[in-house]
Specification:
Radius of gyration: 21 Å
Shape: globular
Helix content: 55-70%
Number of strands: 2
Structural class: mainly alpha
Distance between the termini: 43 Å
Length: 375
């Protein structure tokens, strides 16, 4: 069922009536499970799909530790692109009909409490004499608390925080062009089309400022998620499908351009173009299946718990995972596959503690403080 909104000079636009809520109050639990899948993909990449600091933790290259799995693990970095698609979907869903103050408060309260604690925890662990990794300086630590260390060129405490900087820029663009004037279908479509076009122009212009603001490499994934939310609202909407399709076509291009390395004889693992395209397609198809309601039967309560663990797990798993891997594999002689699984399990347990002790206590208080009107 649709309503028709007629402009002054353009053709009528069919605006879908918001979908009815499910028995879970509108929560798409399959999306929670997909979040955890994306986080585990990134963890596989960080623990066994790349070189760098994880080599020091294992004592040798992960390609030697996982001679068969290190190549599929190398595709795990694309879990970030899956995160961005999910983020586009969720932010459009949560920002629809919400005032700017409420949208701002929800984003800050969602991101910052666990992030602050993760930054302090990783810094404290790295400062221990038995840990071989260097902690950042006190000044850099303080800057990291603002989440602006990326543009300021400050050493990062968390390796994954570059993705949070991309998220923050997406929130700012969406708030400015959609939430502030009031979300509706027409405005969301114009936002998506305008961002994709502007990002393409920025790529061609080779202007660093435009790249920072418009994020050509990541815009297709955020926009693709927004397009899939429009599909969720009305699966017959041709504009929504067009936005999603164009976003996939451009997104796979950037992913292949940045990650294809078959021609590099010194690459840690060789990703093929078809392999990269397949993983990107998986992300779009998986979120699309959720948008179309094809996974509504995946309504298990534990998926909500999985979704709650994803963000704190994502924050702490990389750097603290190095420490746990070294302690288990090199310190205690635990076999590599067991050490890998135990490290993932320990990071999930830590994420559970952060969710219960930090997020569930501080997030609602911070949100309330930011939404309470002041005289």
């Amino acid at each position: 069922m649709t309503q028709t909104v007629v402009g002054t000079t353009d053709q009528p636009l069919a605006v879908p009536v918001p979908p009815k809520k499910t028995q879970t109050g509108g929560r798409l639990r399959a999306l929670d499970g997909l979040r955890l899948v994306a986080a585990l993909m990134v963890a596989c990449y960080h623990y066994g799909g790349r070189g760098g600091d994880i080599t020091r933790a294992w004592g040798t290259s992960a390609s030697q530790i996982f001679p068969t799995l290190h190549t599929p693990f190398a595709y795990g970095c694309l879990g970030v692109q899956l995160f961005f698609v999910i983020s586009g979907f969720v932010i459009c869903m949560s920002g629809w009909g919400r005032p700017l103050r409420s949208f701002f408060a929800s984003r800050v309260a969602r991101l910052m409490p666990a992030y602050w604690v993760a930054v302090l925890l990783v810094t404290a662990v790295f400062a221990l004499p038995v840990v071989v990794y260097d902690a950042v300086s006190p000044s850099d630590l303080l800057v990291n608390m603002t989440l602006l260390q990326e543009p300021l060129g400050v050493d990062r405490v968390l390796g994954v925080d570059w993705t949070l900087w991309a998220e923050v820029r997406f929130y700012a663009l969406f708030a400015l062009f959609v939430v502030l004037p009031g979300a509706n279908r027409r405005r969301v479509i114009l936002f998506c089309a305008g961002w994709i076009l502007a990002a393409a122009i920025a790529q061609g212009a080779h202007q660093p400022l435009l790249d920072i603001v418009l994020m050509p490499e990541y815009a297709p994934f955020f926009v693709g998620g927004v397009g899939l939310y429009l599909v969720h609202r009305d699966r017959r909407d041709p504009y929504a499908w067009g936005i999603t399709g164009v976003s996939f076509l451009i997104g796979q291009h950037y992913s292949v351009q940045n990650l294809w390395n078959v021609s590099d004889p010194n690459a840690f693992a060789h990703r093929t173009s078809w392999g990269i395209i397949a993983v990107v397609a998986f992300g779009f198809v998986a979120v699309g299946a959720i948008a179309l309601g094809l996974l509504d039967r995946m309504n298990w309560g534990w998926l909500t718990v999985a979704g709650a663990l994803t963000y704190p797990f994502y924050l702490v798993h990389e750097h603290l995972g190095w420490v746990v891997v070294a302690a288990l594999h090199r310190g205690l002689g635990v076999p590599s596959y067991a050490a890998f699984l135990l490290t993932v399990a320990s990071m999930l347990l830590l994420a559970y503690a952060l969710n219960k002790l930090v997020e569930e206590r501080l997030t609602p208080r911070l949100r309330k403080a930011l939404t309470t009107p002041r005289q």
